[in-house]
Amino acid sequence: MFLLGVFWGADKAPSAMVLLEQTWANLRRCYRLESLRAPLPDRRFDELAERLRTIFEDRRYAVYKRVFSQDRRPAKRLQVKPRIVLAAAGAATDVVDALRASQLPVECVIRRDQNGWEKYDYDRICLGHNYRVNREILVECLATVARENRLHFPAGDLERLMPVAALRTADLPDSGCPTGGACLALAAAVWFSETVKSLKRYGQAG
Question: Considering the entire predicted model, what is its pTM?
Answer without folding.
Answer: 0.83
